[in-house]
């Protein structure tokens, strides 16, 4: 049997991670051969099951915990969900007829469906919140309002607040049962009321994204899942049945905004809340998918201003999870916004900023609500509905990363401009000269002044070379720049 040799420092870090419920992104360093997978461990460790453990939940179906749900680093603990009555999953309907007063739907009580404004012939959008969140959160209401405004949809908010509270380990387990509840809800509406699963689009944030994945596993032909910064701890690096993956729906699009990991060698490990690995058909990484502009508290008095403008809840989000919730804000803005979020397929964000993937010949996609109209996706015309979209065989997007840059405040959507400069090489040039570069662009549509070409302040420019950078601005010059 292979043994995993860890230093005292590594053991201290792992202990902190377990206590804090964090998932180390350095798993590949400590465990390069994936020896920590529980199905490769032959010693008797108390929390690892050696036989399948199964629990059934009435008409919802059954859940089991096998060795494949464990990993010494990525997912060291697993428990079963809390009872149904405790989690108390509820489904609240909003439509254009009742945009503010939700109607409670219970598929086991037929009259709650028949007497509601639910119409199975219309598209259905479902919102699933995440950890330490509720349907009363500001963002849920804002997203719901934008969806109601966008079209004549059935907008269903999934309330699982009874199971989203700490401990995080328990909340991750509860998502599996909530996934069963969502699947039962949709499957019953299909069987008894004629709902087509292809017409259903589930939007989940954090743990809600994986919840949508669990539901999709049990819904034949689910149309779409949008994962908004899917939770990283206990999911990243795990098998597909443990997390959101492309097989969970006909189309899975994901926005990553908090995938950064920081390792403090002598004390504790801190990780981003969101996944960094691609898990959908289209995976978008705005601003490299790690740190979002406007979320650095050292940039200015962001929290006090937020506290005044949007209240205590939003201020706490800025303090604790600004990067993590940015995916929500980007998606919400994309629903009715006129500016399209164009993501460029590229090997890295650095390549993207250097203009190496600027043209859509490398592959482009639309991030957010309209992702299903991206180039490279085709519509199945053979079905009765034209809502089924998926990547074409000629352009397999699974595993690819799409990069773009956004602003630090609303409107977040920006236009991308590629600027190339040929630097002169005069005889008397001195290499020690330092400075900054700005550019002004003029077109028939307007003027962009003072666009910063050296935003990181440490760009080294050499005489006689060319310098290319992709910069952003909210204004659209229509591609017709007359003067620089």
UniProtKB/TrEMBL annotation:
Keywords: Disulfide bond, Secreted, Signal
Record's keyword annotation contains Calcium: no
Gene3D superfamilies hit by this protein: alpha/beta hydrolase
Signal peptide: 1-27
Compartmental location: Secreted
Domain called Lipase: residue spans: 56-376
Pfam families, sorted: Lipase
Keyword Repressor: no
InterPro entries listed in its UniProt record: AB_hydrolase_fold (IPR029058), Lipase (IPR013818), Lipase_LIPH (IPR016272), Lipase_N (IPR033906), Lipase_panc (IPR002331), TAG_lipase (IPR000734)
Family, similarity comment: Belongs to the AB hydrolase superfamily. Lipase family.
Protein name as it appears in the record: Lipase domain-containing protein
